[in-house]
Each structure stands twice: as C-alpha cells, then as structure tokens.
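Lecture 7, part B: from sequences to assemblies.

Below are the input chains for today's worked example.
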Amino acid sequence: MPPYDPSTFPPFAVTVDLVVLTVRRHALCALVVRRGEAPFQGMWALPGGFVRTDEDLGAAAARELAEETGLCAQDPAAPAVGNGAHLEQLGTYGDPGRDPRMRVVSVAHLALAPDLPAPRAGGDANSARWAPVGELLGPGGGMGRDGEQPAPLAFDHARILDDGVERARSKIEYSSLATAFCPPEFTVGELRRVYEAVWGVVLDPRNFHRKVTGTPGFLVPSGGTTTRQGGRPAQLFRTGSATVLNPPMLRPEV
Amino acid sequence: MPPYDPSTFPPFAVTVDLVVLTVRRHALCALVVRRGEAPFQGMWALPGGFVRTDEDLGAAAARELAEETGLCAQDPAAPAVGNGAHLEQLGTYGDPGRDPRMRVVSVAHLALAPDLPAPRAGGDANSARWAPVGELLGPGGGMGRDGEQPAPLAFDHARILDDGVERARSKIEYSSLATAFCPPEFTVGELRRVYEAVWGVVLDPRNFHRKVTGTPGFLVPSGGTTTRQGGRPAQLFRTGSATVLNPPMLRPEV
DNA sequence: GTGTTTATCGTCAGGAAGACGACTATGATT
DNA sequence: AATCATAGTCGTCTTCCTGACGATAAACAC
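Predicted structure of the full complex, as structure tokens:
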C-alpha cells in the first residue's frame, strides 16, 4: 500500500449490471435490453447504469431493478410481499478493456424474480425482453438445445450472465432461493418445475415432494389448495423460515 | 438506464483489499497491517491499495498480495508450485461513507496461504502480523474464546474479514480448497487440522481419513512418509485433480 | 364412465456418515 | 529394554438419506 494523495487517485466509473432471472414456460430466462447507443448499438445487454455519488451499491442495484421491472428488492429478513425479488451481489468486473470508452468497473448483481407480465422497457432502452438463457449463452453454459447459436451480448455481459446463472444453479441446491422464482403461494409441483427449469433436468415428483416437505421450516402450508396446474388439487405453501437446506437438494449427475 | 455523457460520470476511487488467511498453531489467522496515516492511524487494517489505471482487478489483488507477503497468486489451472496461494474475488464494498476522505469502492479478494515465516511489512505499513481471527472479530464471527474483546479494524474491514472467513469456512466443505492452507506435500492429519482450525471443531480422525482418501481424485499419494507430527509415520499426499468434493465434507452442527 | 393429468403416500435397496473398537509404528520416558 | 504417549490406519455397526418405483387420490375432458 504505497502512500497516496487522495486527490490524485485514478478515477473510475462504477456501474451496476443486473442479471435478472425468472422462469417462464419451463425455461430459465434472463432480462435483456436492447442498446440504443454506441458502443454495441442494437445489441442486447444486461440492464444497468451508473452508481450515483451518494448511493450504496445495493441501493443502486435495487433502483435499476425497479426502473427496469417494477420489482421491489426484497430484504432477506422481511417476509415475502407482492412483487418482491431476491437481490444479491454477484461479482465485480473491471477488465481495463471491457468498455471501449473509459475505465468502467461494474458491480454485477443477481436478481431472482417470479414470472412477470411483459417487461417494461425503462429509460433509454429501445426494448426489453425475457430471453431464455440457452439462447443467450449457447448449449454449454446455458444448456440450450444443441445447434443453437447464441445471440452475442454487449460488453462482457455473456460472462456476467453465465456467472449469474451458475450462481443461481448452485445456490438453489442448499438454500430456499428457488422459492424466489415462485409467487407468494405455490405448490410443490410448481417449485419442482423451477428446479427442473433452472437445472435443465427432470426430477422425480415423489422424491422431490418427500424432500421439500420433510425438511423442517422449509415450506409452511398456507391452508389453501389449487388446481391451476390441472390434475388433483395441490396444497399451497409459503416459504418457511429456514433459508438453508441441509442436507442439500442434490443436482442429478449429467 | 438513463442516457449518459461518458465525460460526466461520477468519479470513484477503486481499491482492492485482501483477506489473507492462513492456519498457524491450530488457529485461523488473517494478515493485518498497521495503518501509518489518517484516517484510522495506528489501527490494524486489511492490506490493500489502489487499482492502477490499466490493471485488471485480479491483477491488482495479486500484486498487492505479492507486495505484502511475497506470495504468488496461483492460477487454478496450474499445478501447485512453491509459495503459491489461492486467490479469488470475495465481494465489493462501496458504502458512500466507508472512507471519510472520498468515495472509495473496494473490491475485496480472499487469499488462502500455507503457514508462512514472518510476514514482511511492505510499503508504508509500519508493521504487519498474522492475527487470529477470533481476536479480530470476537466470539461471534470469529469463534474466539468468550470474553475476548475484538480489536477493532479500520474502515469496514471487520465486515470484509467476516465475509472472507465465512467464505473460506463454507467453501472448504465442498471443494479441495483446504489444501491451499497446506504445503505442497501434506498428511491426512495435517489436512484434518486445517479443517479443525477453520471450523473451530474437532473431527474424528478415522472418519476424516475415510472421507478424504475415499474420494477419488481428491488426494494423490506422493510416495513418501513423514513423522513431523510425531507418532506413527504418515503417508504424504499432494492435491489431486478433483476440485469439488461431492458429497461435501459435512461441518458438524453447533 | 373412461382416460388423462397431477398430487401424495409407501416400500425397498444401496450408499454415506457418525460413533467407536482395534491395531500399528514411531519417539519419549522410565 | 520395557513402557507410555502420540498419531495414523483399517474395520464394524447403526442410522439416515436418496434413488427407483409401485400404488392410490382427486380433479378435468370427452
């Protein structure tokens, strides 16, 4: 740590970028916006923006999330309310060449949201959409069908998205985070379809049911039932107080 | 994402801070340096410094690590060489008030090193030392003995250290990262004492031996034996090619 | 009613982990 | 030299968890 003069530090721009994930029609999807200006004009990118001078990093991410989706970042301690989303810091990307205009350090955040109506394009984004991660990342990282060509993302956003997807995939193993993809009340089958979409696998409904209902504090029955998935009525649950899943849910091999 | 003029972005200083952990005398220790200037002059702090204009974040962390300890950051792909340490990004801390002089965003990194000789103070640090995390964080986060008063760290470094310790504690559960605390060749007992120091628990030597030697690719025998721990000679191992531990090593309850 | 879909309960075999017993090979002590 | 203390290594036994899968239940479509 060499001595420094605080007035001569090298200046950086600091932004937040968002990996907003949801599950739509049995597929893991990410929110992307079309860039309206150079560089990478017309390409898809992750939503994001500058951190303001007196704003915390998490607050900047929550603000961007609200601007782009109308979602309210969820305090992990508070009970789930409508339109609340899980938000956590993902990682920071600061390669000197990642933005051709200037030195930008981007603090990426990961948000998990239940299925929403149409995304609303905010600010300068010409349009916004939910894109299946398989389309954005290709078969490798996104586990899309073979042969699909990934639509390239601006900047290093493909890498950020890949890291975010991997974080989500691994974190639902040992936490109750998968419920962040569900509405406040959901069935065991709906939760199972979240795991199936995020991991790209098929799980045994009976073993899954035994696992999630047998873990104390993971799910609490809300009393009601629903038939919105067809078939026999299913019990409705809310997320319980347990945030960690021990032993974890095991991701099937290959 | 409002439209912006790249020449009017709010300027930030970007630093890297290091949580360097090692195991010394059966205790998890962190590298701290004494601050030689205001603010927090005379207090202990995590080592760190400014990111240079054309330097990647990871490169800045590796440079600071080398300056402070002489350690060489280890490429995860390369085989272990002498004086190599594991280095990974931990998280980014950018609260507007965390540095009273100016707006500083710090990208914290976590480094795990084998037991070293005396730390060498680099640059402007009056001195540097390995401090048991229990002394720095108190009984809660650091699992120190009850009644100890934590020696406060400068800035928000106690929080950063706590996050780093928690990362290390959880990551050795499901990865071969604990071997980063060991010399290139080590015994099963030495590896077990690493787990015991990091977790602050006592593990059954027989079950631990069965677990680590029964996981394919985790440890490879190097052929030699040693009696440096006393008792019956123990087989020496190197870190194997397996980087994940599945099923994970279970941290005992409470 | 019959078939289809989804939910839920039960059974059984195999594997992993915690609790320990037993034995081995060193150096230190008497 | 005999004994002791220390650490390493191999087994055993019980318990818990998981994966595979049979069976039943309750809705809807026709």
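Note for the exam: The beta strands of chain B are 13-24, 27-34, 44-45, 48-50, 72-73, 84-93, 104-112, 128-132, 219-226, 234-239. Keep this in mind when comparing with the next example.
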